Amino acid sequence: MLHLMRAEYEEERPETVKIWHMVRGEGHVAMCGRALREDAGTLPDGEWGSTAEPDCHSCGALYLREVP
Q: So which domain of life are we looking at (predicted)?
Protein backbone atom coordinates (compact mmCIF):
# COMPACT_ATOMS: atom_id res chain seq x y z
CA MET A 1 0.00 0.00 0.00
CA LEU A 2 1.27 3.45 -0.87
CA HIS A 3 1.58 5.95 1.96
CA LEU A 4 2.44 9.65 1.91
CA MET A 5 3.20 12.16 4.60
CA ARG A 6 0.89 15.18 4.44
CA ALA A 7 1.33 18.44 6.31
CA GLU A 8 -1.03 20.06 8.79
CA TYR A 9 -0.44 23.81 9.00
CA GLU A 10 -0.62 26.28 11.87
CA GLU A 11 -3.87 28.28 11.92
CA GLU A 12 -2.22 31.64 12.63
CA ARG A 13 0.54 31.02 10.04
CA PRO A 14 -0.99 28.88 7.28
CA GLU A 15 2.35 28.54 5.45
CA THR A 16 4.06 26.94 8.49
CA VAL A 17 3.91 23.18 8.99
CA LYS A 18 2.62 22.32 12.46
CA ILE A 19 2.82 18.52 12.27
CA TRP A 20 3.15 15.76 9.68
CA HIS A 21 0.49 13.08 9.28
CA MET A 22 0.44 9.85 7.27
CA VAL A 23 -2.22 9.23 4.61
CA ARG A 24 -3.01 6.21 2.49
CA GLY A 25 -2.51 6.71 -1.21
CA GLU A 26 -3.10 10.28 -2.33
CA GLY A 27 -5.70 10.82 0.41
CA HIS A 28 -6.52 13.97 2.35
CA VAL A 29 -7.67 12.27 5.55
CA ALA A 30 -4.85 11.30 7.88
CA MET A 31 -4.67 7.79 9.29
CA CYS A 32 -5.56 9.33 12.68
CA GLY A 33 -8.78 10.73 11.14
CA ARG A 34 -7.83 14.41 10.80
CA ALA A 35 -9.01 16.03 7.55
CA LEU A 36 -6.13 17.87 5.88
CA ARG A 37 -6.06 20.58 3.23
CA GLU A 38 -6.19 19.24 -0.32
CA ASP A 39 -3.24 21.46 -1.25
CA ALA A 40 -1.17 20.40 1.77
CA GLY A 41 2.46 19.56 1.10
CA THR A 42 3.51 15.94 0.87
CA LEU A 43 6.66 13.94 1.44
CA PRO A 44 7.44 10.28 0.75
CA ASP A 45 6.78 7.95 3.68
CA GLY A 46 10.52 7.28 4.00
CA GLU A 47 10.93 10.79 5.41
CA TRP A 48 8.92 9.86 8.53
CA GLY A 49 10.92 10.82 11.59
CA SER A 50 13.43 12.99 9.72
CA THR A 51 11.62 16.34 9.50
CA ALA A 52 12.20 19.37 11.69
CA GLU A 53 8.50 19.36 12.59
CA PRO A 54 6.94 16.65 14.76
CA ASP A 55 5.09 13.61 13.39
CA CYS A 56 1.61 12.58 14.51
CA HIS A 57 2.02 9.80 17.06
CA SER A 58 -1.28 8.13 16.17
CA CYS A 59 -0.52 8.12 12.44
CA GLY A 60 2.92 6.69 13.15
CA ALA A 61 1.53 3.82 15.22
CA LEU A 62 -1.00 2.89 12.54
CA TYR A 63 1.54 3.27 9.73
CA LEU A 64 4.03 0.94 11.43
CA ARG A 65 1.34 -1.74 11.62
CA GLU A 66 0.79 -1.56 7.86
CA VAL A 67 4.35 -1.60 6.53
CA PRO A 68 6.72 -4.55 6.61
A: Bacteria
Does 1 have pLDDT greater than 90?
no
Phi-psi region of 25 (alpha: psi -120 to 50; beta: other; left: phi over 0): left
Rg of the Cα trace of the chain?
11
Residue 57: alpha-carbon gap to chain centroid: 10
Q: Quick one: which of 35, 37, 55 has its CA closest to 45?
A: 55
> pTM, whole model, 2 decimals?
0.94
DSSP letter for each residue of the chain? --EEEEEEE-SSSTTSEEEEEEEETT-SB-TTS-B--TT--EEEGGGTT-SSS-B-HHHHHHHHHH--
- Alpha carbon distances (Å) from 25 to 32, 36, 65: 14, 14, 16
